[in-house]
Amino acid sequence: MYVLKNPGTAWQKIGCYFRHVHVPKEMLRLIPKDRLMSEKEWRNLGIQQSAGWVHYMIHSPERHVLLFRRPLPKNGEYENKNNAYNGAINKN
User: What keywords were assigned to this record (predicted)?
Assistant: First the structure.
């Protein structure tokens, strides 16, 4: 299994954080072509990110780029010193 420990920089827009995860093109055969993946499916591919991320869109031209989002935190939700995206948010 290929483990992606640094899923990429997240950014915030319209009430959500967004992140694009690039997987090796050799893994394309493991990624569904016609539907979004559940959290269990993308975690089984070796993608490691903090709680709350959802695979929300298929980018057909580059299927090896997985698009994730999660809602902005409310009242301390997702607060954790070990949070995978602490300090990695680009506010655009």
Answer: Cell cycle, Cell division
